[in-house]
Amino acid sequence: MxxxxxxxxxxxxxxxxxxxxxxxxxxxxxxxxxxxxxxDGQAAINELRSGPIDIAIVDWVMEPMDGLEFVRQVxxxxxxxxPFLPIIMMTGHTEKHRIVKARDSGVTEFLAxxxxxxxxxxxxxxxxEHPRPFVRAKGYFGPDRRRRSEDYxxxxxxxxxxxxxxxxxxxxxxx
Amino acid sequence: xxxxxxxxIINPPNRLKSVxxxxxxxxxxxxxxxAKAEKAMEDMKPQVEAHMRSEVAKLAELMGKVxxxxxxxxxxxxxxxxxxxxxxxxxxxxxxxMLTRFGDSLCRYIEAQxxxxxxxxxxxxxxxxxxxxxxxxxxKGDTNPIGLAIAAELEKVVGxxx
Lengths: 175, 162
Fold this sequence. Notes:
CATH class of chain A: Alpha Beta
Radius of gyration of chain A: 16 Å
Number of domains of chain A: 1
CATH topology of chain B: Four Helix Bundle (Hemerythrin (Met), subunit A)
Oligomer: heterodimer
Strand content of chain B: under 5%
Largest sheet of chain B: none
CATH topology of chain A: Rossmann fold
CATH class of chain B: Mainly Alpha
Structural class of chain A: alpha/beta
């Protein structure tokens, strides 16, 4: 039976009208009733200010404000209406250095183009079931860039680096 | 702990869960919901295909201008990149997997070229001609043998598997 997505409010940000329509079609079929749209980052910020949004699905390449700048404004803008907003970056840029750049701007999830109904639903489900804690550090504010500990199979470094030690010692707080 | 190393972990309340959990919800992806969304996407293919056709036509028109400028007009190449990126991003959604593949290759090639000469322009043209042929002959999917052979040849030139 899954989740009832009818009350979810989603903002789609893409300069391609066709792409917005494609995503909106999938969301509507999934039962989402409130889907708002914006053609670029600035318009999206205005949309966020005009009413509450639960999840934003954002393209990277747009003008005048691109997806990365939008994410930065949402996360760290002085008058950001929702710094904890889950943001799915939808992009054809799948090179590693670009993914790292987007991750460092505070993106919650990635959705590689071409998108499918399945990849979109999986990302939405992941955001609902596995919300990530946020980290505020010098030069970064956004979702924890490391996945949940049970998903991590690599060596534990947080106790050894300067920053890692701080994270290890940090006491979680409720927003 | 100094300001430089101070890190705060914040656990925002999970409002989403309360929005989507109506008391009868179960975890994970609902296969029925997914099937419905896939059907909606399938129904939209003709519309996406029409958009792809217009992007392919734009690309062919730009090719003429790029050739006329001998590849020296960066603005034209940027426009071409945007059209190819659109094909890469939506070709498969229209049922044309080869458009995604060739679009990706063309984007990578344009992006990697600092200076364009006759040889580089001819490689761009090979991409555009292939893309036009795929659309012109309505070659759907990503397994057409001729398309695969051309992709393999371009792969050698671009220097990276597509």
